[in-house]
Amino acid sequence: VVELGQPEHSAITTCAYCGVGCGFKAEMKGNEVVRMVPWKDGKANEGHACVKGRFAWGYATHKDRITSPMIRKSINDPWQEVSWEEAINYTASEFKRIQAKYGQDSVGALVSSRCTNEEGYLVQKLVRAAFGNNNVDTCARVCHSPTGYGLKQTLGESAGTQTFKSVEKSDVIMVIGANPTDGHPVFGSRMKKRLRAGAKLIVVDPRQIDLVKSPHIRSDFHLKLKPGTNVAIISALAHVVVTEGLVDEEFVKARCEMKSFNEWRDFVAKPENSPEAMETVTGVPAEQIRGAARLFATKGKNAAIYYGLGVTEHSQGSTMVMGIANLAMATGNVGREGVGVNPLRGQNNVQGSCDMGSFPHELPGYRHVSDATARSLFESAWNVELRAEPGLRIPNMLGAAVDGSFKALYCEGEDPVQSDPDTQHVAHALESMECVVVQDLFLNETAKYAHVFLPGASFLEKDGTFTNAERRISRVRKVMPPKAKYADWEVTQMLSNALGYPMNYKHPSEIMDEIAALTPTFKGVSFDKLDKLGSVQWPCNDEAPEGTPTMHIGSFVRGKGKFIITQYVPTDEKITPKYPLILTTGRILSQYNVGAQTRRTENVHWHSEDRLEIHPQDAEDRGIHEGDWVGIQSRSGSTVLRAIVTDKVQPGVVYTTFHFPESGANVITTDNSDWATNCPEYKVTAVQVLPVTQP
Ligand code: SF4
């Protein structure tokens, strides 16, 4: 730790990186961070932290921060610094002009799942009340939207079922498409502690993640499947459960819709879903699948499933989420500690942004915009008439921009040019718009296509709340003034006022009070309560005034749990002689997502570039050696990285991270997406990899 002096003031706040939501004491000297001390009373982390939350805060005071609003008439013009008043008035006049010329639906907004709950709530309110449409979306679209869909269908609530602490009661842990030690390190450590104490481990992943083989830990089964075959594996696991008498009949009979169970059981029992039939599809030996299923379904044991983007970011992402819920219900592993269906949310506030109605089809609290009763509640509170038909998702906005009907985008905290698939298409869509507004800390990749830049505020510069992967709502506290004068919620409010829809919040606590008044699961939440309790897990209401650590005890939120048939459908992304390898992607411990923050901190010394992992056999076939530059070509585009030759990946599969814009990971990903939610299929791209000279 580099000591920067004695702190003069401090506040308890919440890490702004991943969905674990660790509590920290931010110790400050004036407007400089002295250190971030993990908060021992933080329920998500209990005094622990990782290298991101602890050390990667330097971006907040980095020289690249933009602190003045800027506008330009054309993206080829230089930026002109302007006053806040001019920037807001210009933006409002452009949005009004565009709506007058092209129609009410020609504008929309994206709000990042890194923003606070209060900011997310205000952006969707701006869109619905001031823009007059439902064209609002969040980057949860491109990560965990299938979780929202799949868990709502089966269990009745779009959220994980447990607390993180619950893992301490698990006897068997199944990790599917997640890498907790890199992606969710503090929870990963908690899981490792339980594994060292004797819990069994099943890993379902195309790549050998650290949990498979690390000091004192060996997975009992590593189902090293071919990318894109998740649903085949879950069906094969379920086949073993139903054909070998491993169903928890008592639980299913008491808690689930029997008609749906019987149909599902008949489906998975078919010979084509057996491990033997699925062996050629998945590449996983049948006896391993059988062994894993028997272990998971051991009678009298607590078995928990933890999953990540390796489940959701597929053309069958929603199907797989439902398959996971089916397996948990069939084996009686829902509704108590130590079990459950646990999505490991990527960003700090993915759960919160979904809760806040940042989707084009849902009002806050997951109420569909076509629900007249819900609409009328918001209409009387907001004093507007709301639209009953869903708006445009991110890919639909981009598509409509290319087609010429979508002309203006307000983009708060997102960088779709780097983070969304098929970069060329995203750039072309943005170029086709007449007004792109970027609100961010830095001139990110999307700002290259912007006409207005509104400076954002870091988590140290504002008050609010984040909701982590276990539904825990925690306070974010301001420890320094916004570098550009205003917090993001204030900027949204100014824009709304300039557009003619009045907003007059004095403090984010007033926004939370409004959320609580309109959202049943947040009914008992207030800043005062959060100050008193430290944090609270929703649902928090009259029945559960101090929150709900474990969901679905006694009955499911939807009443009876519903089994849904999960038919495996191969992805359209096929390997061919021209593109013989499958590229899949993931994260590394020290960096975070598109790296806008972590690349501007000391953490860059741990990981200064993205590299491509390739199996020794594939490397030898191509004359590739460790450290060589390689060209990666897909049907969408190409990029160049340096190679790591390793058997962590299986033959036929290559892997990279996506933290640096110059690595161009999303230049090569495709526009395939989940059938239900349009979550992109980042995890399966057919590529060719060949040696190249240094670029
Ligand atoms: Fe922050 Fe996640 Fe690390 Fe905790 S585990 S310190 S929330 S990045």
TrEMBL record:
GO function terms (MF aspect): 2 iron, 2 sulfur cluster binding; 4 iron, 4 sulfur cluster binding; formate dehydrogenase (NAD+) activity; metal ion binding; molybdopterin cofactor binding; NADH dehydrogenase activity
Keyword Iron annotated: yes
Keyword vocabulary terms for this entry: 2Fe-2S, 4Fe-4S, Iron, Iron-sulfur, Metal-binding, Oxidoreductase, Repeat
Presence of the UniProt keyword Calcium in the record: no
Lineage: superkingdom: Bacteria
Limits of the 4Fe-4S Mo/W bis-MGD-type domain: 8-64
GO biological process assignments: formate metabolic process; respiratory electron transport chain
Parts of the chain that traverse the membrane: none
GO cellular component: a single term: oxidoreductase complex
Family label: In the C-terminal section; belongs to the prokaryotic molybdopterin-containing oxidoreductase family. Belongs to the complex I 75 kDa subunit family.
Protein name: Formate dehydrogenase, alpha subunit
Protein species of origin: Hylemonella gracilis ATCC 19624
Stretch of the intact protein here: 239 to 933 of 961
